[in-house]
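Bench notes, afternoon.
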Amino acid sequence: MPESINPPEDTEKDPVQISDSPLPSEEGKLEPVRLPEAGLARVEANVAMLLDRSARHERQIDDLSAAPPLPDSPFAAYGLPGFAGLPPVPPPLEPRPILELEDEEYEDELDALSDWVDDFLVRVYGAEVTTAAPWCEQWQEHPDVVAWLHALWLAYQQHKDPEAGLSGLFVWHRDFLTHAMATVRAAGGPLSACMTDPDRPAHRLLPGPRPSNRNTSATEENEDHEESGELGQAGG
């Protein structure tokens, strides 16, 4: 018969021996479990270790909750932080229509736009000035022309960016340049009363439409109320 396999008698045993089911005393009460001195020291060490670990976890949670937000990252849209050591990615530009700017901010933007129009747009794409394609050397005084050219400039900056791909500038030519220049320099457009001959510079602002009847009526009604109120106070 095969010999039975028994564990060796000198196997190291846990010094802490706790009975799974303490025997009741003669009165039916459970006797307290008594631990050897060596086992008690081990239990105290384990408890101290667990308390220390819990305290470290609490400190880590506090540090994470109080940590500053992660810098902007190109992977933020996917919920991934930036790489350590790399400079933060600047936030995307938030362009504003130039006609919404005021005072010095408007003047600075208009100066930058004028440089681009004079040094690039007109020099490269400025066709001959004719009655069918008028122009104005004082186009900065035409608000609608300023708005058109500013929008065209913003689109140019976007489509020349490498992220726009190799076809970016073609899209700008097709969808923005042709349409904007055709509108600004149309025979009946905003510059139609200005220079139609390069040898005869001219500048004229065409009168725009008057306010609608609704706005005009409301303004007149407010003025009537104000006049009647002033007369009433004078009579009193």
